Amino acid sequence: MLRHKKIILGVSGSIAAYKAALLTRLLIKAEAEVQIILTASASAFITPLTLATLSKRPVFSSFIKDETGGEWTNHVALGLWADALVIAPASANTIAKAANGFCDNLLSATYLSARCPVFFAPAMDLDMYAHPAVQNNLSKLRSYGNTIIDATHGELASGLEGQGRLAEPEEIVAILQKHFEVSAFA
C-alpha cells in the first residue's frame, strides 16, 4: 500500500534519530518515495549522507539549498507534494513548535504547509514525555487531526526505563500501510 506514495520523513533532534535509517530503508523497500527533512539538531545524531544514500534523494535541512546560488527549499511545494508527513523521532521541541505554530526551520514550515495526513512519533526521556506541557502539546496535535504514534515503554538512552522510546520502524510502517489501506476503501 505504500507503493508510489510520497512520504516526507522529518527527523528531529533525538538519540532515536539513528532509527530513521532503518525507517527509510523499510519505506524504500515498500516502494515509497521518501524525502527527508533533517533538523539542525538531528544532524548531530545522524548524517545527511547516510539518509541521502538510503532514500536516494538529497536531504533537506534548511530553507536555503545552495548558499552560493541562493536556491531555496520550498516548504509549500513539499507540503503539497507529500501523501504523508511522518515526524520520527519527534522531539519535545519539534512537538512544541508544531502544536503552537512556530516555524523557524524547514520541518516546522513544511508541517504548517502540509495538506496531507501527519504522523508524529515522539521520542524522549520518560520524565520529558510525561511532562504536562508535552502531553498538552500532543493533545493539541491530535485535536488538529494529526496522528500520534505513541512512544513505547523500554530502556531509554539515559539508562532509565519507562515510556519514551520511539516506536519501532516496523510499527511506524505498519501504521502508514494501514492508513493508506483504509483511505483506499473510503
UniProtKB/TrEMBL annotation:
Keywords noted in UniProt: Ligase, Lyase
Domain Flavoprotein, residue spans: 5-176
PANTHER family: HOMO-OLIGOMERIC FLAVIN CONTAINING CYS DECARBOXYLASE FAMILY, PHOSPHOPANTOTHENOYLCYSTEINE DECARBOXYLASE
The protein, known as: Phosphopantothenoylcysteine decarboxylase
Superkingdom of the organism of origin: Bacteria
The protein's Enzyme Commission number: 4.1.1.36, 6.3.2.5
GO molecular function: FMN binding; phosphopantothenate--cysteine ligase activity; phosphopantothenoylcysteine decarboxylase activity
A single BP term in Gene Ontology: coenzyme A biosynthetic process
SUPFAM superfamilies referenced in this protein's UniProt entry, alphabetically: Homo-oligomeric flavin-containing Cys decarboxylases, HFCD
Keyword rRNA-binding included in the entry's annotation: no
Organism: Adhaeribacter pallidiroseus
Gene Ontology annotations for the cellular component aspect, listed alphabetically: phosphopantothenoylcysteine decarboxylase complex
Signal sequence residues: none
